[in-house]
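Q: I have 180 residues here and want to know how they pack in 3D. Can you give me a structure?
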Amino acid sequence: MKKLCLMAVLLTATGCFNSESDYERLLEEKESYADQLAAAQQENEILRQSLANVTAEQERLQTLLDMEKSRLAASALPLRTENGNPADGEDIWVEAPVRQAGQTPAAAQEPPRREPPAEPAPAPRPAPTGTRTYTVKPGDILYGIASRNNTTVNAILELNPKIRERRNNMIHEGEKLQLP
């Protein structure tokens, strides 16, 4: 402020500054520029905070994405043909549809499936002797159940024909399965 007053005195003395109204106008301009600078600094700080928030959110979402990719990779199932055999002996994998207990996955989330020719549904058969009952736990898949119980997916499907009627042979938490 002192410098501005000193400049005004010097300009007045040299004849470049000819009235008090010019001095007042310069003071108003200075205040206006100071206000604009303060507003710009405040806006800059808000933008810095917003950028920090966006960066933190991106990191959080990337972590969630990495966790979901790991979970899906762990739940990959071998692709099988209509007759239940591995497709041409190749190592082909599809992601298993993931769902919470009691939820049915949306059709858009499930991988497409080749439908076998329409056949009449087999009549439910009574459980053969020598079978046992298994209750499906969260995260169970047919292949895992078969492996842990020294049997095959086809053997489980033979004893539980209702599973074959479902899309992708889905099983549900709490469901009771017959095992050989």
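Q: Anything worth noting?
A: The chain is about 50% helix and 10% strand. The mean pLDDT is 74.
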